[in-house]
Specification:
The protein has helices at 2-17, 21-31, 38-44, 47-69, and strands spanning 72-74, 87-92, 102-107, 113-117. It has 122 residues and is α+β, with helices and mostly antiparallel strands. It has two domains: 1-44, no CATH class; 61-122, Single Sheet (N-terminal domain of TfIIb), CATH 2.20.25. It comes from Microcebus murinus (Gray mouse lemur).
C-alpha cells in the first residue's frame, strides 16, 4: 500500500508542477481512503523538500545552541557575505578536551553563520 501511495504522490507532484489541477484533484480522490502516517508523508516528499527539511533542521539546532549560550557581540570578525563587522560569537568545546574550542560566529546584519577552529602547532 505504501508503494502505491508514494507512486500516486509523485505523480501528483508532477501534475501540480505542470499546473494540471484536474489531474491532481483526481489523484487526491484516490488517496482519500488510504490511512496516512507521518513516516509515509515524509517518504512521499520530493528530494528537494527532503533536502530543505534537513537544512532547516540543522539551522534550528544551530540557532538553539547559539540562543542557549548567548554569545558575545564583537567587531573582530568580518562577515564573508555582507563584509560588515557586527557579529556575535560563542566558543564551544565540540571535540575532545585536548583539542581547541570551536568558534561559532553569526553576523548580526545579514544572519550569515560560520564556524572555525584554530589549531596551534608547537
Amino acid at each position: 500500500m505504501e508503494d502505491e501511495v508514494v507512486r500516486i504522490a509523485k505523480k501528483m507532484d508532477k501534475m501540480v508542477q505542470k499546473k494540471n489541477a484536474a489531474g491532481a484533484l483526481d489523484l487526491l480522490k484516490e488517496l482519500k481512503n488510504i490511512p496516512m502516517t507521518l513516516e509515509l508523508l515524509q517518504e512521499m516528499a520530493s528530494d528537494e523538500l527532503k533536502e530543505m527539511r534537513k537544512n532547516l533542521t540543522k539551522e534550528a539546532i544551530r540557532e538553539h545552541q547559539m540562543a542557549k549560550t548567548g554569545g558575545t557581540q564583537t567587531d573582530l570578525f568580518t562577515c564573508g557575505k555582507c563584509k560588515k563587522k557586527n557579529c556575535t560569537y560563542t566558543q564551544v568545546q565540540t571535540r575532545s578536551a585536548d583539542e581547541p574550542m570551536t568558534t561559532f560566529v553569526v553576523c548580526n546584519e545579514c544572519g550569515n553563520r560560520w564556524k572555525f577552529c584554530i589549531y596551534y602547532i608547537h
